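Bench log, entry 3. Co-assembly request; chain sequences pasted below exactly as received.
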Amino acid sequence: MAFTAASSSSSASKTQISLTPHSPLTSISPSKFNKFTPPCPLNSRSPSIRCTLTKQHAMVEDRVDPAALLHRPDSFGRFGKFGGKYVPETLMHALTQLEAAFRSLATDDEFQKELDGILRDYVGRETPLYFAERLTEHYKHPDGKGPLIYLKREDLNHTGAHKINNAVAQALLAKRLGKKRIIAETGAGQHGVATATVCARFGLECVIYMGAQDMERQSLNVFRMRLLGAEVRAVHSGTATLKDATSEAIRDWVTNVESTHYILGSVAGPHPYPMMVREFHAVIGKETRKQALDKWGGKPDVLVACVGGGSNAMGLFHEFVEDKDVRLIGVEAAGFGLDSGKHAATLTKGEVGVLHGAMSYLLQDDDGQIIEPHSISAGLDYPGVGPEHSFLKDIGRAEYYSITDEEALEAFKRLSRLEGIIPALETSHALAYLEKLCPTLPHGTKVVLNCSGRGDKDVQTAIKHLKL
Amino acid sequence: MVNQMEEASLFSTGKFGRFGGIFVPETLVTCLNKLADEFNLVLHDSHFQAELAVALRDYVGRETPLYFAQRLTNHYKNCNGQGPEIYLKREDLNHGGAHKINNAIAQAMLAKRMGRKRVVAATGAGQHGVATAAACAKLDLDCTIVMGDVDMERQSSNVLMMKLFGAQITSVQGTFKDATSEAIRKWVEDLDISYYLAGTAVGPHPCPTIVRQFQSIIGKETRKQAMEKWGGKPDVVVACVGSGSNALGIFHEFIGDEDVRLIGVEAAGAGIDSGKHSATMAKGVIGVYHGAMSYLLQDDEGQIIGPHSIGVGLEYPGVSPELCFLKDIGRAEFYTVTDEEALDAYGLVCRVEGICPALEASHALAYLGKLCEGLPNGTKVVVNCSGGGNKDAKTVLNYQLEKQIASHTCTSH
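Structure output for the full assembly:
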C-alpha cells in the first residue's frame, strides 16, 4: 500500500484493503492502519499566533484559521497557541533530530513492516470493536429506544492498556537512532511497565523515574519493572510524584542526550512528542473506522475517552477530527468534586501556562505553582493535559466533561456486572459519562468508547471503596 | 490411532482407549447424555458457531498471535549460533489473561441455549472461576462458584474479581477436589435449572470432549499461522499439563500429524521424589477420579495424594483421560519441571521478551532448557503461552527475595 504524506492527516489514513493471495479474507493486518502520516510542515511563513484567552466556545469555521486545523501541529509544534518547545537549549537539537527521524520513518517501508509485525504478534492488534449488548440494554429508555454502545478493546493489548502502542514504536525509533539507553517517567507505574516491557523486548537499557511516594504505593509495579530488567530511580523532590518524576527525567535527558532516548508516555511535553505519541496511538482510530464500516456500514456518531495526559483519547479521536459529524468527548477526573480542590480536571478548571515543555491548560494557583491533582485513578492524576486537547477544546471541536471518583467506581462495577469486563479506573471515567450522555442521544446513535485499559490492577482499590 | 480417537468422542461411553468413561451415580447419567446430545447439536449448528466466532473475536480477542520470540531463540542458540526457532502461542492475550475463557464462554453459551438459568463451577486457583463468572455476567446467567477455603485464602484477588462479576462464591473445606465434589452436588440438586461448567478436560464424558473441543481453536489457529509464517507445520508443540486443557487445545489439531512432536510438561514441584509435586503422568497410577478413569496420584490405599506446585493451576491429582491415552500409545511425551526451574523461566522470559508468562506456562518454557540442545538447527518449536503472569508477580518477588537472602547467607559463612 502506497504511503501518502498528505497535509490532511485523516484523508491519508483512509484504509485501502488490498487482498493479496496470501492474506486471508477475514484477517486484515494492522499494517493497513498504522502508516502514520505526520502533517507536512508549513512553509516558513507561519500564521501569527493568536493569544486570545476567552473561554467561549465557538464554531470551528468562525474562530480558527483553517490552516491551523489542518496542520496539527504547525512547524513550530503549535496547535493554535498551544504546544511548542519550551525547553533548555541543550534539548533543542535532540528534539529536532527526533522530529526528523520520525518524519523519515514515515516513508520507511522496512520500519513500517517491522512495527506492523510487532503490533500484530507482540502487542496483539488489531483490538476488537466490541458491541456491549447488556450495557446498551441498560441505557435503553422505557420505550426501548437508545444508543448502541461499542467498546474499543485496548484492554486486550499486551500489558493491558493502550500505552504499549506508543512505547513499542518509540523503542523501535530509538533503536533506529542508534540509542542504547531509554528513560521514562511514570506515576502509578503503567507507563513504566510498558516502557520496561519494550526495553526487554528490544534489549535496551532502561531507567524509569518514579516519585518516591508513588513507589511506596505501587511496590508491585516497581517489582515488575525490575523483573523486566529496568532500573527504577526514586525521585524525592517536590511532592515525590509524577510531575517531579517527569522533571527529573527531563534533567537526565539534558545530561545524556547523545546516548539516550526519552519515551514520553503521553501527548504532552515539547514538540515533536505530542504529535509523535498521537501518531503512534492513531492506529486505535484507524482500526475503529474500518471496523465501524464493517459492522454497520458507517462511522461512529460519538467517540468517548478518558483524558489524563490525553494519549488514548487522541489515539481514538485523531482519525475523526475532520469528520464534523463525529462528536468527540473527553472525560477528565473530577476527583472529590470540581469545587473540592482535589481533582484533575485540567480542561475545566485549569489556566493556560507552560508545563514540561509545552503550553497547555494546567492546574496552577495564583502564584503559578502547580496544584497537586487528585483522582482515584492514578493514570488521570496529571496537572497538565496534551496541548492538542487544549486546542480542540478552544475551537469547540471536542467537548470535555468530568466525572468524580464515586461515579467512576460505580461505572467500574457496572461494566463488570453487565459485560464481564473489568475496566481500568481511568477508563471507568469515560464509562461513567455514559450515564449523562445516553439519555440525550437519539435512538440508534453509535457510541464508541475507548476501553483504554483493564482493571485487574484496580480491584483492590475498588473493593475497598465499594465495600463488596 | 486417529480413528480410535474420533470414535471415542462420538460414542456415549467417552472412552479413550481404556481411559475416560462415565463413572458417575445413576442420577447423573441421563443428564450427561443430554449434555452430550446438545453438544453434538451445537457442533453442527452454524448459527451457534457463528455467534461463538463473534464472541471469540470481539469479546475474547481471538485470534491470538503466534509470536516469534527472537531473543528467547537467541538465548537457546549453541556456540555455533545454531538452534531451534521458538514461537509462543499467545493465549496470555485473551480476555482474562488465559486460555480458560475459550471454554468458559462457549459452555456458557451452550448453557443459555439449553435454557439453563444458573451455572455452577468449581475452581482451584481461581482462573476458571474468574473466566466463568465473566462469561456469565456477559450472558446474564446466575453464577455459583465453589472454592476450597484453603484456595480462597491463597487467591483472594481472584475471589474479589468473581464477586465483581456478580458471582456467588460458596466456600467448602479443603481444596479443588472438594470444591468439585460440592459443585457436582449443587448441580444434581436442580438439574433442570443448573449447568455444570467443567473447567478442564477431566471428569465424566462428555466433559473432557466438550472442553477439548472448545479449546481446540488454539491448535487450529496455530496450524493456519504456521502455514502463513513459514509455509509448514510446527515440528514440536510444547504445553504445560495440569489437568490438560491448554495442552489438548493445542495438541488436538496435530494428533494425526505424526511428524509433529507433542510434549506435555508437568509440575515436579519440590522435586519428583519429594512427594510434593503434581506429576501425575510421571508418578501416578490408574484409577477412577471425578467420574473418569485416568492416571492419578494416589497412595497404596487408593487415597488421593494432595498435589503441589508453585503453578497453582497445575495442582490437580488427576489428568485428562485423553492425554493418558496419548501417553500410553506413545503419541505424546511427558516430562516434568520443578518449581525452581519454572520460577527461573518466568524471570528469563520476562527479561528477554518483556512477556511475563503465568507460572503454569513457565513450566512449558522451562522445559526448553532441556529440549533445545537436542534439536536440529531451525526446528520450529511452538510453546503454548497459556496465560499471563501478572497474577504471579508477588510469588516470584518472594522467591527472588528468598534466593537473595539465601545466597547472602551462604557467602557470609
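The radius of gyration of chain B is 20 Å. The first helix of chain B runs from residue 2 to 10.
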